[in-house]
User: Which sequence fits this backbone?
């Protein structure tokens, strides 16, 4: 993956509490960076995730999390997480993610998060709403850093 593959980025500065004894970001924090960036991606779309859950009783559940580490990220380093929707299935969304240095092309990690849309009462899968599909389709070509 390259920086140009993404139209949306969310910035972070690595905090001391996020590094381990080796002085690099502890592996679990990559998923926090990914999750936060996906939340901000939805905010940028204008999709009110909380309202949708409260109105429909349907929510996304994470069914897959993948992190591939390319280079160490250290304390106080500024990074940007790129987010894009790689695939929309019948009841799932697959996010492609990548962590770059702030304003540069150095790749630190890549990832994939897969969510499945599920009725919270029956736990049955539900089709991803057309409204959300349309918002993603429209925005993917228009989102900028």
Assistant:
């Amino acid at each position: 993956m390259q920086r140009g593959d993404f139209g949306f980025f969310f910035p972070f500065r690595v905090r001391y509490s996020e590094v381990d004894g080796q002085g690099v970001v502890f592996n679990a924090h990559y998923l926090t960076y990914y999750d936060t960036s996906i939340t901000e991606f939805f905010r940028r779309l204008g999709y009110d995730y909380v309202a949708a859950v409260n109105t429909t009783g349907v929510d996304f559940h994470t069914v897959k999390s993948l992190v591939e580490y390319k280079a160490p990220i250290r304390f106080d380093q500024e990074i940007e997480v790129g987010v894009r929707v790689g695939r929309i299935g019948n009841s799932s969304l697959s996010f492609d993610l990548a962590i770059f240095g702030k304003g540069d092309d150095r790749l630190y990690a890549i990832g994939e998060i897969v969510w499945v849309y599920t009725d919270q009462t029956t736990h049955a899968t539900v089709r991803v709403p057309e409204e959300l599909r349309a918002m993603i389709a429209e925005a993917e070509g228009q989102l900028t850093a």
User: Anything to note?
Assistant: The beta strands are 8-13, 58-69, 78-88, 92-101, 107-119. The two ends are 16 Å apart (CA to CA).
